[in-house]
Amino acid sequence: MGSKVSGKMAAASRVVQVVRPHAPLIKFPDRKGIPRPNVQEALKVLAASLPQISPSASVSPPPRPPGPVSRLPGTPDSIDVVRDLPHKYRRRTLALDEMDYIQRGGPE
After folding, report:
1. Residues 24 and 103: beta-carbon distance below 8 Å
2. Which of 11, 33, 41, 62 lies 20 to 30 Å from 75, alpha-carbon distance?
3. 42: left (phi over 0), alpha (psi -120 to 50) or beta
4. Any idea what the Cα angle at residue 24 is, between residues 10 and 101, rounded to 5°?
C-alpha cells in the first residue's frame, strides 16, 4: 500500500511541474538588424553638429524643464556611494544569450 501512495504523490508532483504559457514581462529591442555605429564617425558627426564656441563666449547653464521635478523620498545616492558599492552588490551586465532567453520566455 505504501508504494501506491508514493506513486500517486510522484504523479501529482509531475502535474504541478508543467509550465503554463505566459506573456513575457520583459522586452528587449531586436538589435540584430541594426548596424553597430563606428565611434570615430559618430564623434565626427557630433563635432560637426555642435555650435562652434569661441573662448571668450560665456557658458550658460542648460535650461530647466517647466514645472516642479518630483523626487523620490529619501537621501539620493552620491557618486561616493555608487563608487564604494561592493562588487557583489553591483548589477552584472546581461549577455546577449541571456537577453534572448528572457525575450523568448525560456528554453526553445
Report:
1. yes
2. 62
3. alpha
4. 80
Decide: 25 and 105 in contact? Cβ < 8 Å: no
Tell me the three cell numbers of residue 71: 523626487
| Type of residue found at 1 | M
Q: 19 with 94: CB under 8 angstroms?
A: no
Q: Give 50-108 pLDDT, tens digit per residue.
A: 776 665 556 677 777 666 666 667 777 778 877 888 888 887 888 999 988 988 888 87
Do 102 and 22 contact (CB within 8 A), yes or no?
Answer: no
Beta-strand (E) ranges in 6-60?
none
Q: How far apart are CA 100 and CA 24, in angstroms?
A: 12
Residues in the chain, how many? 108
Helix (H) or strand (E) holding 41: helix 39-49
DSSP structure string for 18-31: PPPP---S------
